[in-house]
Amino acid sequence: AQLSCLARLLAAKNLTADFSSFPPDLLLFFHPSEVRAGSCREFYARASRGNLDLLPRGSARRTRLLRGALSCLGVRGSRLEPQQLGSLGALVCDLEPGTIPASDPAILDSLKLCPALTGAQQGALNALLLTGDTAYGAPSSWDLRTLQDLGPLVLALNQTTLSLVAKAAREDFRRSIAAAYRSQGRSQREKSLILLRAFAAAAAAASHPRLKRSEDRECCQPINASTIADSVLFLTPEELDLCLSSDILIENLETVLVEPVTSETLKILKKKVDEHFPSGIPEKQLSRLGQLSRLYTEQEISQWSVTSSDTLAALLSPSGGQWNDSQVQQLLSRFLALGGSLTGPLLREMGGERLCNLQEEQIQQIPAEAIGTAGQLNISLCSQTKKELFYRKAREAFAGLASTPSLYYCRIQPYLGGAPAEDLKDLANAGVAINMDLDTFLALNPEELQKLSVTDVKNLLGANLRELKKAEHEPAVVSWVQRQSQRELDCVLGIGLQGGRPEPPGTASPAGPSTPASVTSTATVTTPAGPSTPASVTSMATVTTP
Asked: In the chain, what are the domain boundaries?
């Protein structure tokens, strides 16, 4: 709507003559009457490079744009010449289907610009290719290079066209897609899978003559270790079900699962695995399931024998794909019920969101030493109760570092969202500037934050004190400020926080500077030894805040 308004405004001010300085997207909204005949070719060539999806397909504005371009280029019938096609660019995506076979074969290169073709356009494209009168020649002569040169047009090929392509060329092309699949991102992988499915359908149509009838069922040459990788790509799920033995699958499971197989094929593979282990999948085989494991229901997972942390880590590995939360919960429950223990590497493998999905009693079962070896865990998404449980485990795990406050803080920092005010005060008065960052400060339990004094906050933030001003409108900060003396906020912090409690009339001003430019305080603090606080910290502290 904004681009449309801008286009009208420019036209009203007669600023459309020099369109070369306008972005192509904006040109899509110009009315053909605003385009001068002498420069219309350049106009439409530039406009065709815009994002046509900004105009709904079939809309009056988009139809008018194409008609204006055809009129400018002098197109009178259905045939388009190479020079005209070059000026139309992506506008060819809206041409009538009959224009495709009637035009110069160079139209195929222009059609590669189209995100998608209508069914009628795809039919016309195949009709043109079937004539053999294009740069690609007859489909029966195509090889791997030809299919690759067709690029996105391959997605528009129908079974009639594909069935004429030599089987060797089709399979070479599918192998090239499969080889590229492993290094592609998610969106590109989806396109590759679409290609693979299209070729699987064509292969099925072309391959049925090799099947023979046996006892009213179609069967084929048995799959072996040397053919299994190609078979899962090139056979239909029905053929795979008939031709693949469970023994061969189990022996070559890793080989199969690295291939970009479809969801339908995965279901057949799961069926074969279950047939091979009618009494349940042995634990040593569970770690080999990879993406197949994600097809099992919570009820099926509850029967698994998961006793080893290595097995659980293999199952949780992201290389196998995304689990549902309910599946992970069942998997962890089963592991713990069988006597398993969550180790540091396992906690790291689980990640933040899965950690927060643990039940409270499961968190309580985590050994403190596991927290100590897990590295920094993200518990920011956990409920407050679970944060407090994780904090207690971490406090126990790092108790031995309490005599070195700076090191203790580095290890305990990810868990401070569950810390009580007493422990935060101990950190603030440990005699060493810990320079808590603002994100950690804002992640503290809001109820516990309210219990901190102005000096506590000053000592916790240290060199990052001035950052607090940026967060003065955060609810927890607003509430904390309102509980403090405004005079103390001014004299101790001196960063411009407003909203504190006014002093009663006649109250003497506290001694001290009005800004935190050089605040020196002497604190002697004795804290009891134990896992909850740094042990017996007695020091003379000098804190300077810039």
From this structure: 1-135, 419-502
